[in-house]
Structure formats: structure tokens, C-alpha cells
Amino acid sequence: MKLQPHPDRLFPADPTTRDIARKLHDSIKDEPIISPHGHVPPEWLANDEPFKDPTSLLITPDHYVNRMLHNHGVDLALLGVGQKDFSEEESRKAFKLLFKHWWLYRGTPVKYWMENELYDYFDIRVRPSAETADQIYDQIAERLQEPEFRPRALYKRFPLSFIATTDDPVDDLRHHKKIKEDPDFDGEVRPTFRPDKYLEPAREDWPQLMEALANASGVDTTTWAGFNEAMENRRAYFKENGAISTDHSHADPGTARLSDAEAERIYKEALAGKVSKEDADALRRSMMYEQVRMASEDGLTMTLHPAVYRNHHRPTFERFGADVGCDIPTKTEFTENLQPALSDFGTSENLHLIPFTMDETVYSRELAPLAGFYPSVFIGVPWWFIDAPEAMARFRGAVTETAGFTRTSGFIDDTRAFLSIPARHDVARRIDSGYVAKLVAEHRLEMDEAEEVIKELVVGNPIRAFKLEGILGEQEGVIGK
């Protein structure tokens, strides 16, 4: 059977609305991609080394792909996860495993992403299956030897106009420095300050993390005041090296501030490894309050995606480590949790706060009203478990009537699978085109208004939310309002 993605895929079935959606998508489909939150390793673009093989490019780093195979009994190790030495034979077997189980992905966005990648970038014209696995593997492996498939060439081909990575606060950012100093590459690749583990005082290794933070910042972290000074120091270092945002994920989005005396007491107990869970949570929420305060001062956009039970299956975590597909969403609450920080900093001209969630119940109840009042709040679009067509459409319906079209973040691909970036963004552009087209078909928007709206969703919103005007405002093909 032939592989041939339909040109009207994901558009509304109604012919009138579909025609409008097609026109809207045509107007933005070739806009450069803005990717302000992702997990592509910066060394890929710093060193521009060829990708090793089809499996390490398309399967191993993509937990969206791997978890679906795992739930049918496939060992993650067979997919290259956690394997330092993965032979050509093992790589080919992993590819066959994926395509032998390709029927599992029907109805999922993974199928759409992967088939688009195969069709658009590798000229694959046969459907994935056990019978075609070797043919597809060989064709991809051959193409990966070509200069056009190195990371920097793909950056241009997608095309990307901006991409941010995710980086530890004590990272020296040498890969980012190498990219910036290379005259042969003019792409925008920026670091993101991700301090999660340093804000979790209940961690067994937290005292050692405080030592690492002290060494990186040159600030004594044996006191509460010293901790905050060290955080300010590292945020400034990241900003000096191009960072435009910070990223945070905890059990809840709490920002309740402790008194300095109470924070100092708990901080000392945590350094001694004697802190209770309740006190550790209270200190973490006070740390998050301070992060909002710092963001209101240094201007780094703050993204917040709480309520994920990390490493839900302990044996998998102990064997393979984090970020391999066994994180599970939980319910969350934003209104009360964010009130302390927003009460103090929510109208600061310097603060941009972007809450993300996988708990769809809070979109219309909490996030849209928050963004509908606070000039600092933008709503994070569907991401991770809900970056799927139906969830994206539900999102627009839930938030637009209260917050409008301009208070969302722009699409966030949040991926470690480099080649999936353009496919993921195209899904969002098609679904948003369909949603806006429905408003035109119902005579709720004029066509010229719809064309402006769809451009804002793709270009204007991420530039506005992540303060990219100075970086992308004059770049060809990118015009933010």
C-alpha cells in the first residue's frame, strides 16, 4: 500500500469550512518555525555531526513512540533506550519492532508525525509494516549519509527561525557558546534555565546540588539568602548567554511565600538531610515565589508545567533513568496556587508567566480567566500528552471566548525527536486553521480577520509571549505585532 498523506488531512469534513481552512493554512504553512521550548541536545547543532542511524534518530529519543510499544510488552532496551552500544543489527531489529506494531498507532498523533517525516524528508512512498521495514530502514540510512541531513542543514530546511534547549542551572553552556561563535551558522539556538531539582529540598542529593550551585555561582549556598543570590547569579549567566526563558515542573504550581526566618529554618534542615515532606513542599513553594519575583526583575519568560507524577514505574526509572515515557499526569489547580505571586507581581511589565497543563478541566475554569485579567499571564497550548488534534480543538474552544486569541503561547513541540518538529507544528497549524475557519463559516469572523488571527497564532503569539521581538522581529518571514 502506498504512503501518501492527504493534502486536506485534519481539516474539517464540512466542505465549506474545509475550503476556508485550506486557504488559512496556505497563508501560514510556510512560516518559519518558532520552537521556544524543546529538548534537542545543543551539541547536535554545535558539532553538526551526522545522525548515527534511523533508530537513534526516530525511535530511541522519542518516548511518545516508545511507550506505546512498551504497553504491548516490548522491552525499552530493544529500542535503544539506555543502551550506550547499540549495533547496526540491533538498530534494524528495533525498526522492525516498531513497524511490526504500526497498527498500534492508529488514531494517535504519533502515526501522523512519523508518516509525515517519512514522506516529506526521506521520500518514503510505502506504508510502514513488517514487510517494508527493511526497505524503509535502508532508504533512511542512505539519506542520513548526505550533508542535507546533518542537524544544521535540517534546521534550515524545516525551516526553524528559533529553537531553545533545556539546560541545567550549573551548565557552563559551552555548546551554546560554540554555536554563537561559529561564523558558519546563523541559526538562533538559545538555552533555557531549568532549575527543578534545585527547588526540591526533599531530594536525597539536594545537599550535593547546593554544593554544585555554590561552585557554579561562586556564592555561599549554606543560607536561604545565599541560595536566592546563587539562583539570581545563574539566571543572569544564562541571560548573558542568550536565554529568553526559564522552565519549571513540580507536583503543584504553588507560590506561597514563607517568612525569611521560617524559610531559613527549613533550608538548614534540608541541608542536613532532615527535612519533612510537608516542610520541603512549603520551602519549594516559597522558592517558586522567588522565581516569579526574579522573573519580574530580569525579564526571563517563565513557563510552568506542574502536576506530573514523574517516573511512576520505579523499576523502569532505576533501569533506564528519567524521561523514557513513564511520567503520568495528575490533576492540578492554578487559581489559589498562583495567587500569592500574581498578587505581588502579576501586573509587572517585566513578567511573562506561561502555565501549561495536561488537566484540561482548568482551561476554561482557571487559566482563561487568569489570562483574561493579568497582563503577565499567557496560556500554554496543549503539549505532551494532549498535543493531539482533538485536544487542540477543545483547547481553542475552552479559552478563546474568555481570553481571546492573543493570550496563548504559540505551539510548543516539547520534543527530543528533532525530525518530528515540523510535523508537530503542522498539526497545530492545521487544527488552528480548522477552528478559525469554523468561525468564518458561522459568520463570526470575516476572512481578513481570520487571516490576521491565524498569523498571530503561529507567529505573533510566540514572539509576544517569549519576548522575541528583538531576535525575530526583523527576520525575513517573521513579523510579530
From TrEMBL:
GO molecular function (one): glucuronate isomerase activity
Catalytic activity: D-glucuronate = D-fructuronate
Alphabetized InterPro entries for the sequence: Metal_Hydrolase, Uronate_isomerase
GO annotation, biological process: D-galacturonate catabolic process; D-glucuronate catabolic process
UniProt keyword annotations, A-Z: Isomerase
Keyword Aminoacyl-tRNA synthetase: no
Pathway linked to the protein: Carbohydrate metabolism; pentose and glucuronate interconversion
Pfam families: UxaC
EC number, UniProt record: 5.3.1.12
NCBIfam families hit by this protein: PRK02925.1
Family of the protein in this entry: Belongs to the metallo-dependent hydrolases superfamily. Uronate isomerase family.
Protein name in UniProt: Uronate isomerase
Protein's organism: Trueperella bialowiezensis
Taxonomic lineage of the native organism: Bacteria, Bacillati, Actinomycetota, Actinomycetes, Actinomycetales
Gene name in the database record: uxaC
